[in-house]
Design goal:
alpha/beta, 5-stranded mixed β-sheet
């Protein structure tokens, strides 16, 4: 079984993690990695949102599966566009790691007025600007190790806690930001395994890796993003907390202006979640409330 992945250390870790789980689920299965370079990896001098935002790290990897060069692809779920391309399906969502963001350098309360915070995410920038309008922001691109080497003097960089943990760098985090302070990216901390929708053999093997709790959380968050307009250019975030199959689910969604002057935040919940479709419906309903009742539509218009 051929697994398509980006070539970064984090992407390789994620792909090997899934490959190991596949070997456990199907003893004797031969699994190999197919490393694919993406446009997001090639153009490190351009901010992600200027290249088209979500999708710059996954399109070429998805193409390898669609073209039959690989049987499945492993992605950071936060990198996936809200809509899955025709011919592909998210076949499995393994158990989620910590979805929160982390500061490396100074803690938020210790940043002096005007301190520099480096991040390549408009979501992170907008929320920090809302909390601390005095901060100065700088773009940040590159792999984990290169970013860790760019902590501004007296400032901080923002990273996904899961990425630091997976590469054994979590001890470098100065502060883990609670979701009430910094709402995570849609799918942050989760992995998504994609394969061709008509590849019944691969679907059957990969299904063993699916975690029902993480699946409904991801579907709720992706439903929220899809209702905002797929991959809207504005800072958006969502964080779902599910009790498990058939249990309750709570979802918090956010939409903000690029400068962080306006941050809209709303919560929704269901006492009982009946499958992934119901979770996605919750996400879409929450997004509609932000757009129709809270002024989110005017942000998009602007």
């Amino acid at each position: 079984m051929r697994v398509a992945t980006r070539g970064s250390a984090l992407a390789r870790w994620q792909a090997e993690h899934v490959a190991s789980a596949l070997r456990t689920a199907a003893p004797g299965l031969d699994v190999e990695l197919l490393v694919v370079e993406t446009s997001g990896d090639r153009r490190l001098d351009v901010p992600i949102w200027e290249m088209g935002g979500k999708g710059v790290f996954v399109k070429e990897v998805q193409a390898a599966v669609l073209e039959g060069r690989a049987d499945l692809a492993v992605h950071s779920a936060k990198d996936l566009p809200a809509l899955t391309p025709d011919g592909l399906v998210i076949a499995a969502v393994p158990p989620r790691a910590d979805p929160r963001d982390a500061l490396v350098g100074s803690a938020l309360a210790d940043l002096a007025p005007g301190a520099v915070v480096a991040t390549g995410s408009v979501r992170r920038r907008a929320q920090l600007a809302w909390l601390r309008p005095d901060l100065t922001f700088r773009s940040l691109r590159g792999n984990i190790d290169s970013r860790l080497g760019k902590v501004p003097a007296g400032g901080a960089i923002v990273m996904a806690a899961a990425a630091l943990e997976r590469l054994g760098r979590l001890d470098q985090a100065t502060e883990i930001l609670d979701a009430s302070v910094m709402l995570p990216q849609v799918g942050q901390g989760a992995l998504a395994v994609e394969c061709r929708s008509d590849d019944t053999s691969t679907l059957g093997v990969v299904a063993a890796l699916d975690d029902p709790r993480t699946r409904v959380e991801l579907e709720a968050e992706r439903g929220f993003l899809a209702e905002l307009g797929g991959d809207c250019d504005l800072p958006a975030a969502a964080h779902a907390r599910a009790a498990g199959p058939g249990g309750s689910i709570a979802l918090t969604g956010l939409l903000a202006s690029l400068d962080g002057h306006v941050v809209l935040r709303r919560e929704g919940a269901l006492d009982r979640i009946d499958g992934a479709a119901a979770a996605a419906d919750l996400g879409r309903a929450l997004a509609r409330q932000l757009l129709d009742d809270d002024g989110g539509a005017s942000l998009l218009d602007q």
